[in-house]
Amino acid sequence: MSDFAIADMTLGGGMLGICPLPGRFRDYGTDLATVLAWRPDVVLTMTTSAELERHGAARLGQDLAARGVAWHPLPVEDFGIPSGEVEAVWPDFVPLLARGGRVLAHCYGGCGRSGMALLRIMVESGETGPEALNRLRAVRPCAVETQAQMEWAFAGRMR
């Protein structure tokens, strides 16, 4: 992905979206406007606070809240998987998606960590791991970059 764009797909009655960090490729404000135009109910930030700060996105949570969008910062190191601390606060998005909600996940590049998060949500929604991975990679070919990320996502709690 050489520019900021949101790839999306349906899940249940809702939508999942995946994108890089707002501000990575161009002006943060322009990317934030793109995020808001997608109309997310929730934005999952899978980057560290240092990554947000480096790219002028340190206010992302405040900017989203000011526009009525819930923000879940779940920091994971690049190419990593969530720590036990992040795992303990992992939200249940299945009911929101069943009501037609929209969940947008981003990391730095919009591939590994955000793909892992969406794959986990898909598995928690009842899709098999391989089926979910194929559907996700159909819209974002680079989604989920490591075996550890895939295993973490496949271990999602069935609801």
SSE order, one letter for each helix or strand: EEHEHHEHHEHHH
| Helix segment tally | 8
The secondary structure category is: alpha/beta
Highest-level CATH class: Alpha Beta
Q: How many structural domains can be distinguished in the coordinates?
A: 1
What is this structure's SSE topology?
Elements: E1 7-11, E2 14-19, H1 28-38, E3 42-45, H2 49-54, H3 60-65, E4 70-73, H4 84-88, H5 94-98, E5 102-106, H6 112-124, H7 129-139, H8 147-154
Parallel strand pairs: 2-5, 3-4, 3-5
Antiparallel strand pairs: 1-2
Your description of this structure?
The chain contains eight helices and five strands; from the N terminus they run ββαβααβααβααα. The chain is of the alpha/beta class and 159 residues long. It has one domain: Protein tyrosine phosphatase superfamily (Protein-Tyrosine Phosphatase, Chain A, Alpha-Beta Complex), CATH 3.90.190. It has a five-stranded mixed beta sheet. A hairpin with a 2-residue loop joins strand 1 and strand 2. Helix 6 packs across helix 7. The longest helix has 13 residues.
Concise synopsis of the structure shown:
This protein has 159 residues and is of the alpha/beta class.
Descriptive key words:
single chain; 159 residues; alpha/beta; Protein-Tyrosine Phosphatase, Chain A; 8 helices; 5 strands; 15% strand
